[in-house]
Amino acid sequence: MITKARKQGNSLTLTIPKDFHVEEGAKMRPERTDDGILYRFVEEEDDFFDFSSDILADLINEGLEGADLLSEFKKRKHAIKGAFHKMAQSVDDPAMTREELENLIGLSGDH
After folding, report:
1. What's the predicted TM-score (pTM) here?
2. Is residue 71 helix, strand or coil?
3. Torsion angle, CA of 45/47/53/55, rounded to 10 degrees?
């Protein structure tokens, strides 16, 4: 079975076949893979891995403003995904606290 991406406003949508029995309103998190895009079901929005406020606080404390602030924010936000992959491949026990993770990816944790 092949589905087709369709334009809806400023976004693209994919049709999920009825045979998959996905409930309307189901939440999924897309992930880029080497083979394409993988969608994983999520129970609720989990902001544990959203470090946006922490990154912004660090950048403001560093005195960045305007275009420099935005540019550095995007750079650091993007770097987090790579840090997670590197961390997952290099540790025997991936369980850690949020504070340990913030230290590992270079956030000050002083927020």
Report:
1. 0.41
2. helix
3. -120
pLDDT, block means (10 residues), the chain with 111 residues: 89 90 89 88 71 90 92 88 73 68 71 50
Query: What is d(CA 82, CA 84) in angstroms, rounded to the nearest whole number?
Result: 5
Q: Which residues have a Cβ under 8 Å from the Cβ of 17 and sit 6 or more positions away?
A: 1, 3
What pLDDT shows up at residue 43? 75
Work out the burial of residue 51: count CB atoms within 10 Å of its CB; fewer than 13 is exposed, 13-18 middle, 19 or more buried.
buried
16 vs 36: CA distance, rounded Å: 16
DSSP label at 49? G
